[in-house]
Amino acid sequence: MRIAIKIASYAILLLSVVFTMNVRAQATVNDGVFTEAQATSGQAVYDAQCKTCHNMRFYRDTLRSWNNQPLLYLWESIMGTMPADNPGSLMFEEYTNVIAYILQEQGFPSGDSELDPDDGMENISIVSP
After folding, report:
1. Nearest partner of 49 among 116, 108, 107, 97, judged by Cα
2. pTM above threshold 0.85
3. With 90 as the cut, is the pLDDT of residue 16 above it?
4. Structural domains of the chain, ranges and CATH numbers in brackets
5. Pairwise CA distance, residues 38 & 90, whole Å
6. Residue 28, strand partner residues
7. Crossing angle for the helix pair 92-105 and 56-65, nearest 10 degrees?
8. For residues 105 and 4, what is the distance between their CA atoms, to the nearest angstrom?
9. CB pairs under 8 A, 24+ apart, for 3-7?
10. Is the pLDDT reported for residue 20 higher than 70?
């Protein structure tokens, strides 16, 4: 009897993990994947580092070209190429917050969970604004 209960418990645990992974795999930028605080912090970095070369229209077109791709791929691309005069010079958090600000400015909603490249960002799909 105890073995059956343990097996049932493990099965429930496994199913909950699988269900959680499937829910995360279905996330899009429409699902409130960043916080308001991240977007606010990202605006300061954007104004100092990005605004001179890229207006928000640029990002609208960029998001369209990354449609259905994982948000992490865009984050990695920006991190590896920007700022143009010193790629990779910002902190990971600054790149993440800039992404949050860009998403907010494109009309995507904020949420309760912080955007984190080390925690599920590869499971968040970009959708065209």
Report:
1. 97
2. no
3. no
4. 2-123 (1.10.760)
5. 15
6. 125
7. 90
8. 53
9. none
10. no
